[in-house]
TrEMBL record:
This is Heat shock protein HspQ. Signal peptide: none annotated. One of its GO terms (molecular function) is DNA binding. Transmembrane segments: none annotated. InterPro entries: Hemimethylated_DNA-bd_dom, Hemimethylated_DNA-bd_sf. Pfam families: YccV-like (PF08755).
Length: 104
């Protein structure tokens, strides 16, 4: 029997990185690290990894972060309407996807 990995965060959820001091929206989830396992260093590759679109005054960037480095962001409960229309497509269920990507 194999262990099933369940992601803590879902698409469209707002999170913050505990150490890198950025906030963003989850735009994709991998059940485990999708690159070369040697590249994770001391971080366990056997956990969900997230693509997070971090929004800032100068624009946005995509970060690839392990689950244990992220937490729910209680200070930012929703994406502003301006950021939503600039960066995302939002479906009828409220799920976010970057303008350049389809919603899963």
């Amino acid at each position: 029997m194999t262990d099933q990995i369940v992601a803590k965060f879902g698409l469209g959820q707002i999170v913050r990185h505990r150490e890198a001091a950025f906030r963003g929206v989850v735009i994709d989830v991998d059940p485990v690290f999708s690159g070369n396992r040697a590249d994770t260093g001391s971080v366990s590759p056997d956990q969900p990894f997230y693509q997070v679109l971090a929004l800032g005054a100068e624009g946005g960037f995509v970060a690839y972060a392990p689950e244990d480095a992220l937490e729910h962001d209680p200070e930012l409960s929703a994406v502003t309407r301006e950021a939503e229309s600039r960066w995302f497509n939002v479906d009828s269920r409220g799920r976010y996807a970057p303008k350049a990507h389809a919603i899963h």
